Amino acid sequence: MNPKTREDTAKFAEMVANKQGWVVNPDTNFTTMLLDGLTTNWNRYGYYLCPCRDSDGSREADAAIICPCKYSFGDIERYGHCYCALYLSKTFAQSGKSPEAIPDRRYEE
Fold it and tell me: Can you give the pTM of this predicted structure?
């Protein structure tokens, strides 16, 4: 496994956002913290585990929370941003609103 840098992870996040029609959170300090967490998780686990959630111990168990997590699509549609607020809908980003806490639906299943 090749270690990732924050720059690698930033490119990954931009690629995901572009592909999905989202934007990366423009708050540089906040986003840097999230990118650092994603980078750490890649270098620890070998995949981009959401930095706002704990690992269940394996890629298989964590599959739903690998960035972009399976919940991000519905959360962005409903709230305008994903759980950790790395990704925002374009409409939400243009609104100037700040992301707020949303429920973690991971354990609702």
Answer: 0.94
